[in-house]
Amino acid sequence: LGAGDAGVVALYRSRSDLTQETRYLHRDHLDSITAVTDEAGAPLEALSYDAHGKRRNPDWTDAAVPLSAATTDRGYTGHEHLDEVGLIHRNGRIYDPTLGRMVSADPFVQFPGNLQAYNRYAYVLNNPLSFTDPSGYGLFGFFKKIFKGVKKLVRAAFSILPRKIRPFAAIAVAIVLHDPTIVGAWESGFAAGLVASGGDLESGIIGALTAGAFHQAETFVDGLNLSGFADTSVRALAHGMVGGIAGEVQGGDFLAGFAAAGFHPGAVAGHRAHRRQKCDTDRVHPVRPAARGGGGAGGRRGGGARRGEVRKWGGHRGVRAVVQ
User: Fold this and answer.
1) Is 76 or 204 the better-scoring residue by pLDDT?
2) Secondary structure (3-state) at 33
3) pTM above 0.85, yes or no
4) Residue 274's beta-bridge partner residues?
5) Which residues pair with residue 49 across a beta bridge?
6) CA-to-CA distance for 319 and 93, rounded, in angstroms?
7) What are phi and psi of 9, to 5 degrees?
8) What pLDDT does 50 receive?
């Protein structure tokens, strides 16, 4: 039985003789299983590990014979113990807790500025009491916890913004932060996605990537020096492809994203020549991609059609009123 970010918290067994049992797993700060209890909370098993993950007696003394758990083969940092051979399977690589070393070399140098990273067999920079390596290829456990904490704080801060005004706020942020470079599109898209979603960091990242893609599509078409119907058609196709792919990646419908994003270039084509004469287009272009990307990401948790509508509203109608 799982509980979101907490991982597996209990084991439920139903046998052929119709008997059932539930065993609850208790963990320490490294996600290592240290105790097992039954449905009534009575302790059934106590587990302990030394600094490098080798099994030891519950009183922290060394075991005279190899130990194993009766309830689960998971133990140190939640990984699978191969007790018959005294190793731990860390998914990407095998770990020897007796040596405190991986048995195969790490293909990545995670931190070039840290000399510990150049020992390709070392486990978590030789600091096993503070860090974990969930995949066997990277010291990500510690940073994952930090990211989760930051994510909760950001969501709490932005959740005070009423849902109905978030799209307006996202467009306002995109306009205030507009910048003629792709970096500016990323920044504006991230901020707009963050505001539109109520503080969801993933939505902010999606907004940044989507805004950057729209910015590049706009730049590419501008470089073709087309005019009239050809300019309108190619621009609509480029924007539609970006919108469709973005919708597909976010779990929505490609056609809905294509239609929502591709509609804007054709709808405002009649205003493009006038706008280029009246204002500096380099200051206007980033606003559309940023708001379009941020608005789409902000609505990503809805269905495919709803996602397309959010992108269409945030990226087209609202911004079109501004650039005109």
Assistant:
1) 76
2) strand
3) no
4) none
5) 55
6) 50
7) -110, -15
8) 96
Angle between helices 228-249 and 269-278 (to 10 degrees): 110
Q: Which amino acid is at 164?
A: K
- Transcribe 70-113 into DSSP letters: SS-SB-GGGPEEETTTTEEE-SSSEEETTTTEESS--S--S-TT
Residues 6+ apart with CB under 8 A from 142: 130, 131, 132
Residue 39 neighbours by CB under 8 Å, 6+ apart = 21, 22, 24
Mean residue pLDDT of the chain comes to: 74
Q: d(Cα 213, Cα 54) in Å, to the nearest integer? A: 49
The answer to whether 53 touches 77, Cβ cutoff 8 Å, is yes
Where is 123: in which H helix or E strand? none
What's the confidence (pLDDT) of residue 272?
Answer: 47
Report the DSSP beta bridge partners of residue 2: 8
pLDDT beyond 90 at 94:
yes
Please give the sequence-ordered ranges of beta strands (E in DSSP) within 141-277, or none if there are none: none
Cβ proximity of 23 and 11 under 8 Å = yes
Cβ burial of 261 (10 Å; 0-12, 13-18, 19+) is buried
Least confident of 74-83, 87-96, 239-248, 280-289: 280-289
